[in-house]
């Protein structure tokens, strides 16, 4: 009988050791959540999609360069640069970076000496091209080179403008 009593005491003692894990935490959670009730707000009402009617088919498309296409086809002002010709060396530079440093004359032909930003000297005569705006030399004098440039205006049309490259001040004093 003593053995049986020993087993009962041992069993009772061991059941205390295998009690509920984190029992105090679970009890606290139950007490704190007694008064809580979840409240989910209703979803906002979906707005009805109304399609916007696009009725501007007659207006010019802002993403299409129609005026440039007209200029290429011969429409518009009819003025356009010749993009099929081979570019000359001085057309790789901005006109502001080129410097006229002198002139040469052979018979009746006057040629200007133009220094490029790379330091090289180039001869320029009437009919030569220079600058990045399709500038063609129309006249060479002892003090300046006159050019006719073809530039694109804000409307997409090509227009002519006259500009000049004057003899560098340091070279004039020599």
DSSP strand tally: 7
Summarize the biggest pleated sheet: 4 strands, antiparallel
Number of helices: 4
Q: What is the general shape? A: elongated
What's the quaternary structure here?
A: single chain
Low-confidence stretches are none
The largest beta-sheet arranges its strands as 4-5-6-7
Structure description:
The chain has helices spanning 2-17, 23-32, 66-73, 169-172; strands at residues 99-106, 109-115, 121-124, 129-130, 135-140, 144-152, 158-166. It has 174 residues and is of the alpha+beta class. It is elongated, with a radius of gyration of 45 Å. It holds the Pfam family PilP.
Output the keywords:
174 residues; alpha+beta; four-stranded antiparallel beta sheet; 26% strand; Pilus assembly protein PilP; PilP
């Amino acid at each position: 009988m003593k053995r049986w009593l020993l087993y009962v005491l041992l069993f009772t003692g061991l059941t205390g050791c295998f009690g509920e894990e984190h029992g105090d935490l679970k009890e606290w959670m139950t007490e704190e959540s007694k008064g809580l009730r979840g409240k989910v707000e209703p979803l906002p009402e979906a707005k009805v999609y109304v399609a916007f009617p696009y009725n501007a088919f007659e207006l010019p498309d802002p993403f299409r360069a129609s005026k440039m296409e007209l200029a290429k086809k011969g429409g518009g002002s009819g003025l356009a640069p010749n993009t099929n010709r081979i570019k000359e060396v001085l057309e790789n530079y901005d006109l502001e970076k080129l410097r006229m440093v002198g002139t040469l004359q052979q018979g009746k032909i006057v040629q200007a000496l133009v220094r490029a930003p790379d330091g090289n000297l180039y001869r320029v005569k009437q009919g030569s091209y220079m600058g990045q705006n399709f500038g063609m030399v129309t006249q060479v004098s002892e003090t300046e080179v006159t050019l006719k440039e073809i530039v694109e205006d804000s409307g997409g049309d090509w227009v002519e403008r006259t500009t000049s490259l004057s003899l560098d001040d340091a070279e004039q004093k020599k």
